[in-house]
Structure formats: C-alpha cells, structure tokens
Write a structure and sequence with these properties.
There is one protein chain. By secondary structure, the protein is of the alpha/beta class. Helix 2 packs parallel to helix 3, helix 6 crosses helix 14 and helix 11 crosses helix 12.
C-alpha cells in the first residue's frame, strides 16, 4: 500500500523536526513543511498531501485556523489541529472548520498515529459517500429533466426555461453568499418548482399571463399542487416549502398564502426573482421577450413590492459584472 503523504505546519522548527521524525518512524512520507498560514496554503496547493498537521498558533497575519479553512474549502484535504492551547475561543473557531481531529501538545507517537489513521479513514469514507450521493443526484436530476421537458412542451415556456432559471438562481445565491449546502437545495428547487403545472389544463397554462376570474384562481393553485407532489420526499433541504412559496411577494400580495418579507424563505425569494427575469426575457404567445435592460428595469421597479430588495440588488450586481466582463 502506498505510504500516505503528510504535511506539517508548525512555526517552531524544533517541534516540527520532532513531528517529522515521528511520522517517518510511523511509515509516513513528509511531503513538505510550512511555518506560516499563507505558506501552508501555497504548499498545500502545490503538493496536495493526503493530510495536514496544522498548528493553530502561527507567526504572521494568518493563524492555523484561517489557513485550514481555506485549505479544506479549496482542496478538500483533511486537517488535524496541533496546539498547546485549549482556549475556548480557539476550540470554537477550530470546530467551525470541521477538522478531523484535535491534538494537544505534547502528545505521544502512538496517539499521533491513531489520530492520523482515523482521519485518513474517515476522509476516505466521506469521499465514497459523496461520490455515491453525486451519482444518485445525477440519476435524480435526469429523471427531473425528463419531467420538466414534458412540462415545458405543455406550458408557455421555451425549451431550457428551468435550466436558465436554475443558472440565474445559482448566480444570485453566490452573489449573496449562500452556503454550498443551501445552493444545492435551491438549484434542485429551481428544476421542480413548476411540477404542479402538469395537473393544469393546457389552455390555462398557455394563457397564464392573461387569466382572470376563476381561471386565474385555478392557475394560482399550482404552487400548492407542486408542494403536494414533492412534500413526502425526504430531501435534506426544505424543497417543498421553497416550491410552495416562490410566487409569494415581498409585500404580501403574492400567492398562494399571501405571506411576506422574511417569512418567505430566502431561497424562495431568490427563485422568485430568477423566475420573473426568465419569464420577462422569454417570448410568450401574448407578447415578445423584453430586452435585457428593460427586464432588469422591470425587476428593479418591483424591488420592495414583489421582490426582496437585497435579492434584486444581487441580481443587478451579477448582470453588471457580467456586462463589464464582456
């Protein structure tokens, strides 16, 4: 079996040297050492070790926790913290980076070995689980694509409508700093939010922009129908609630329940803006598509009434950056 590659980040060279000696005695390869946070990030990118032993207190502007946070986020390398400090604030900050272990110096060689082996094993298991879930999600999305394709053929949409909505929701969510976990749920919601339209009469779907009276009331039940279709699926995200509330307006004038403001999940508020923008910029039987600038003006004019002002601002920032990038 290939010997595992370990990187040591420690600003006291005597301690670093002893750790490296212990690791070699235990059969590990020492890929590289570092003594500062920014150096650790650079070396981690160059060497891509199997595991990093990271001292928390380092000299310089960046401590070990800040360095580990970037390394874990960018490169998915497991980290074990090494420290002589048991300060509550250090531990609290370290825990937020989800390290694989936490060793208090001085420690014995066999304690180091046990922690490294457990961390490497857990990391392998986590990678296998993620790979399985990625395959499962790919299959699920394939099924959803087939369903959505059918809905787009029946409804007022042009081909690829839901994919474009999903892409814009991603852009807005990233602009607003949503977590990767929330982003994954939001993207899935963007693919399934219209699933209730499958139960609507074709003439109501195709004339949705001109409906009045009972037909309008019937059309406005589609978020509830979508909710009913997926509410029993045990997603790790509140997909059904996002779907149910994506047509609620920020001022409470939307449907189906008339809730408003922050009572609407942020994911639903983002989806509302993305869906509205896509609707404006797509051709419909009763009108031509809006040019980009006119669509953004329309979205902006409804900021604070139909749409969350922060979401609208994030949408406008995204298109401004996109325009500046050419």
């Amino acid at each position: 079996m290939k010997s595992q590659s370990i990187m040591v980040v420690e600003d006291e060279w005597i301690v670093s040297d002893q750790i490296c000696r212990d690791l070699k005695d235990l059969g590990y390869n020492i890929c590289q050492t570092a003594s500062a946070g920014d150096e650790a990030i650079r070396v981690a990118e160059e060497e891509m070790p199997d595991l990093i032993l990271m001292d928390i207190v380092l000299k310089g502007k960046m401590d070990g926790i800040e360095a580990a946070e970037q390394i874990i986020s960018k490169f998915n390398i497991p980290v074990i913290y090494l420290t002589a400090y048991t300060n509550h604030e250090y531990i609290k900050r370290a825990r937020q980076t989800r390290p694989f272990s936490y060793l208090v110096k001085p420690f014995i060689k066999h304690e180091l070995y046990a922690n490294i082996e457990m961390a490497l094993h857990k990391h392998r298991v986590d990678k296998n689980i993620k790979s399985y879930l990625d395959r499962l999600m790919k299959c699920f999305r394939g099924t959803i694509d087939a369903v959505i394709g059918t809905i787009e053929l029946r409804g007022p949409y042009t081909t690829g409508h839901h994919k474009r909505v999903a892409e814009l929701t991603r852009a807005i969510a990233m602009e607003m700093g949503l977590t990767n976990f929330s982003l994954e749920g939001l993207l899935l919601a963007a693919y399934v939010y219209d699933i209730g339209i499958a139960d609507m009469p074709v003439d109501i779907i195709r004339d949705s922009g001109q409906l009045t009276g009972l037909n309008l009331a019937l059309y406005q039940t589609y978020p509830q129908l979508s909710y009913q279709s997926i509410k029993e699926i045990d997603f790790p995200w509140a997909i059904a609630d996002i779907v149910l509330q994506h047509r609620e307006y920020y001022d409470g004038s939307g449907f189906p329940r008339g809730i408003k403001g922050n009572d609407i999940p942020i994911e639903a508020r983002i989806l509302a803006v993305a869906d509205a923008f896509e609707d404006l910029t797509s051709h419909r039987a009763f009108r031509n598509a809006f040019p980009l600038n006119k669509a953004l003006e329309k979205i902006s004019s409804d900021s604070g009434s139909k749409y969350d002002p922060e979401v609208v601002d994030a949408c406008l920032r995204f298109f401004s950056k996109k325009e500046n990038m050419g």
